[in-house]
Structure formats: C-alpha cells, structure tokens
C-alpha cells in the first residue's frame, strides 16, 4: 500500500488531481469529483506548508492522540503530521451503508513513534462518498497493546471551512451549550446567543454539543451542515486579524474567509483497553440555500 499524507482530505481539497494518488489507489474518481464539489466549502491556506511535521494549514487535520499542547507530543498530536497508508483491500461496507465509494487510510505507530507515545493502536480513517453527495469520515481507533495497557486520547477533526466573509456567517446548533473559552484560561461559560456570529478572535471548545451544526454563509447562500456521532464536542476557532499576523502559514486576510469548526472529543478523554475500539463519524453536506434548522 502506498503512503499518503494524513491530511489527504486537504490534498484532495486543494483541487490536486486524483493523480496525486498512487495507481493502486482504489477508484475514487467520483470521490475526487465530489471533493471538488465540496472543496468550495473547505479551505487551504495559500501559505500552507506541505512538509511534515509542519501540519498543513487547512483541510480537515485529524488531531490525535491529543487536542492540546500538553506533554511531550507536538500540539494537537502527531496523527496530522504522519504519512498514513492506503488499505488497498479494505473491509467491505455493511450492506446497509449509504456510502457509494470510499478509501481507507491506516495509521499505526512505528518503533520510533512508540518512543514518544508508548501505545500500539490502529487508526482506520474511512473517507466515504455518500449517496446524495455527502462526505462521511468514519474513524475507528483500536488499542492493539500486547502489554495489557489501556490508553486515553482526545481527538478533533479540525475543519477549516471556507467562507465568503466571516462577518456574514452564522453558526447554528451551539446556542445554549456550554463552552470552555481558551481566551479566558479555559473557563466554562454558557452560549447565550441564538446563533454564533463573529466580530473578533474566538477560541472555544463547546462541550456535549448537538449532533448537527450548520455553518451558514449568507453571501453565497450556502450552508455546510456537520453531523457528528461519537464526537460530543465542537472546537470553534478564528485567530482574527491580530493573531493571524503571528501565524506564518495563515495569510493576513485568511481570517476573513475561514472558520475552524471541528467535531471533537476533547472534554472527556476516551480510554480504550487492549482490544477495545472507538468509532467516531463526521458527515459533511452542502445545502445550497440558507439553512432551515429543521433540516
Ligand atoms: O482551535 C484551537 C487551537 O488550539 C487554537 O488555539 C489554535 O492554536 C488552533 O487550534 C490552531 O492550532 P494549529 O496547531 O493547527 O496551528
């Protein structure tokens, strides 16, 4: 199987042709075509660096085994900076699945990796195209430790949503939910507004959030709907103008045209015993008109 950088979704979202994939890559023409369709809603910074371990700025970086900068691991963990392998003989879809085509990416620790995070695991990321034109990311993480040791992790799909103008954007679904505010030493607050709108830097983790979040881009009359399962939290981040200037791979004006909304499991780490597996799902769909909350 070939190696493809974990931020495969970023690579494809940059509009790079599917020739970026090795010939053995499963037939994902329609997946690339679909991603070309959804690409207008996912952004990649023009300053993005494609050189691990520098994380790609944009796409849907997979933050694992931590969504933080604690301990000896790099910020938001190593998974987004690693080369994953393509499983060219992936398990079949369940008969009930609505996925039309998919590719499975696998991440397992190398001997070197085990020095930094002494746990064996298999992370299987299935990138699927759903009938009706949605993108479905299914993550399965299994503890494969042979020493009987459990491990705990946090995870986030740190999605960079492309916008026409951040000042014309509403996020619905997080109202009345609690959040931890990273701009106020992680203190806990309750969202009061009837939707999120944006006038300044925001860096929050909404905790125990609903399964559906809508990012409404009024100007383009488009809405990105995120449906999540097994990912009870949501990260919302925009550095705004001042902080954007201090981020080398974040263009000075990028803050106007992107918002990070990441389905996550951050507040309460997940613990797996050897042999146990965790599954999380994120489905992205485009609704070509302003969102009606009943959808
Ligand atoms: O979204 C939360 C956050 O930790 C922000 O504080 C900011 O650092 C952002 O992630 C981007 O992190 P990155 O490591 O991708 O530059």
UniProtKB/TrEMBL annotation:
- The domain of life is Eukaryota
| Name of this protein | glucose-6-phosphate 1-epimerase
- Any single Gene Ontology cellular-component annotation: cytoplasm
Instruction: Locate the coiled-coil region(s) and give their ranges.
Output: none
Provide the GO biological process annotations.
carbohydrate metabolic process
Enzyme Commission no: 5.1.3.15
Indicate the span of the full protein covered: 69 to 363 of 373
- For the keyword Isomerase, the answer is yes
EC supergroup of this enzyme: isomerase
């Amino acid at each position: 199987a070939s190696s493809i950088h974990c931020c495969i979704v970023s690579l494809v979202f940059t509009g790079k042709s599917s020739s970026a994939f090795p010939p053995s890559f499963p037939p994902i023409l329609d997946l690339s075509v679909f991603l070309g369709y959804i690409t207008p809603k996912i952004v990649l910074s023009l300053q993005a660096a494609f050189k691990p371990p520098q994380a790609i700025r944009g796409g849907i970086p997979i933050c694992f085994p931590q969504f933080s900068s604690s301990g000896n691991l790099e910020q938001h963990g190593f998974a987004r900076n690693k080369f994953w392998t393509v499983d060219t003989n992936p398990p079949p879809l369940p008969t009930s699945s609505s996925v039309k085509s998919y590719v499975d990416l696998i991440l397992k620790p190398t001997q070197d990796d085990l020095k930094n995070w002494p746990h064996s695991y298999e992370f299987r990321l299935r990138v699927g195209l759903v009938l009706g034109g949605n993108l479905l990311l299914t993550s399965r993480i299994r503890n494969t430790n042979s020493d009987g040791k459990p491990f705990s992790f946090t995870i986030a799909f740190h999605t960079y949503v492309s916008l026409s103008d951040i000042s014309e954007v509403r996020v619905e679904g997080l109202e009345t939910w609690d959040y931890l505010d990273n701009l106020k030493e992680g203190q806990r607050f309750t969202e009061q507004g009837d939707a999120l709108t944006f006038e300044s830097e925001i860096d929050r983790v909404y905790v125990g959030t609903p399964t559906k979040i809508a990012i409404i881009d009024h100007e383009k009359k488009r809405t990105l709907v995120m449906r999540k399962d097994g990912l009870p939290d949501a990260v919302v981040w925009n550095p705004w103008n001042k902080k954007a200037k201090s981020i080398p791979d974040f263009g000075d004006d990028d803050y106007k045209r992107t918002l990070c909304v990441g389905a996550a499991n951050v507040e309460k780490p997940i613990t797996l015993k050897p042999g146990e597996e965790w599954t999380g799902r994120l489905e992205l769909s485009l609704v070509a008109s302003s969102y009606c909350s009943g959808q």
